[in-house]
Design a protein that fits this description.
The structure is a single chain. This protein has one domain: Oxidoreductase, molybdopterin-binding domain (Sulfite Oxidase, Chain A, domain 2). Helix content is 14%, strand content 22%. It has helices at residues 19-30, 76-79, 94-98, 123-128, 156-163, 205-208, 261-265; strands spanning 2-3, 38-39, 62-63, 108-113, 119-122, 133-140, 145-155, 171-176, 200-204, 214-219, 222-223, 233-235, 248-254, 289-292, 299-300. Strands 3, 6, 7, 10, 11, 12, 14 and 15 form an 8-stranded mixed sheet that branches. The structure holds ligand MTE. Ligand MTE binds at residues 1, 83-87, 139, 141, 147, 176, 199, 228-229, 241-242, 244-247.
Length: 323
């Protein structure tokens, strides 16, 4: 999701096949003024030097079979070396190369705003706040690729209930850590991203409390590795992956629609809702199909990424306009 000015002869994302091509584009970008729009290389990294994240502490969690897809999970090595985490750089390989500087302990998450019992939770308390479940979800990135990941966590609703949202809370806003020492992509000298920090995402309160919305602390039986948003993130499986903010330090209950990072950067490309929708194209590429990492042929993208049970949240809305 690099931010840049598209030129008339730019290839479509689906035509960008080689990592070298992608890197050349980054060099081009360095000389251009960042504006709106995103483009990506969709290939898995090929650098031999790229090391999969080490597996941290094991987490016991019973699989929630009814909320799990039956597709084979993406291998750990791919899921931890092909990431979007702009706090460490704009290349898919950057988190694997640089996220070792992130310190996921000690860590706390402040939950506040329009609620009766605001509270700052220590990560160890969060790990025990509700029974951990494993859910195998598919993650569809707005860029046109997808993965299948066995996440570990519990419904975000369980945490929000603890702070007792007031009647005027209509949205939940999520903020990622800001610490340029731990997250080199946040240094002012860093080029390539024009996102404002912190990375901010948001959901309507009924979306945030939907049973599918997972407060996520692990994957593949272990605590979350750094490239995937250690120690705690959100996973919202029916929305494009950028709605699933990583390495959270703050959740605020608010009355108005939060100003989210990608929407601020390119409002015509990244709407607040960003529900996976094969019939609403990105302005510069189709969303009708996706490439599952590890597969060769593209597969059809499903409405709401296949999670039809969320459709009733959007009754009466025109999802072409409220994309
Ligand atoms: N969260 C933060 N803080 N920073 C990011 O750059 N990228 C988003 C999302 N969450 C991002 C983020 C995007 S674009 C995607 S597709 C997913 O994280 C990728 O999650 P993964 O790397 O675990 O597959």
């Amino acid at each position: 999701m690099l931010i840049r000015i598209p030129g008339p002869h730019d290839p479509r994302p689906s035509e960008i096949t080689a990592r070298s091509v992608y890197l050349n584009r980054r060099a081009f970008m360095a000389g251009s003024v960042a504006a709106a729009a995103a483009v990506v290389g969709c290939e898995a990294p090929t650098e031999a030097a790229l090391k999969p994240a080490p597996k941290g502490q094991a987490l016991a969690a019973a699989r929630n079979q009814s909320l799990s897809v039956s597709d084979a999970p993406t291998p750990w090595d791919s899921a931890t070396t092909y990431n979007n985490f702009y706090e460490f750089g704009t290349d898919k390989a950057d988190p694997a190369l640089h996220a070792h500087t992130l310190r996921p302990r000690p860590w706390s998450v402040e939950v506040g705003g329009l609620c009766h019992k605001p509270k700052t939770f220590d990560i160890d308390e969060l790990l025990k706040l509700a029974p951990l479940e494993e859910r195998v979800y598919s993650l569809r990135c707005v860029e046109g690729w997808s993965m299948v990941i066995p996440w570990i966590g519990y419904p975000l609703a369980a945490l929000l209930k603890r702070v007792e949202p007031t009647g005027s809370a209509k949205y939940a806003e999520f903020q990622t850590l800001v610490d340029p020492e731990q997250m080199p992509g946040q240094k002012p000298s860093f080029f390539g991203s024009s996102l404002d920090w912190p990375y901010v995402e948001g959901l309507r309160l009924d979306e945030a409390t939907h049973p599918l919305t997972l407060l996520t602390v692990g994957m593949y039986g272990h605590v979350l590795p750094n490239p995937n948003g250690a120690p705690i993130r959100i996973v919202v499986p029916w929305k494009y992956g950028f709605k699933s903010a990583k390495s959270l330090v703050r959740i605020r209950l608010v009355a108005d629609e939060p100003k989210t990072s990608w929407n601020k950067a390119a409002p015509n490309e990244y709407g607040f809702y960003s529900n996976v929708n094969p019939s609403v194209d990105h302005p510069r590429w189709s969303q009708a199909t996706e490439r599952r990492i590890g597969e060769f042929r593209r597969r059809k993208t499903l409405m709401f990424n296949g999670y039809d049970q969320v459709a009733s949240l959007y009754t009466g809305m025109d999802l072409k306009k409220q994309y």
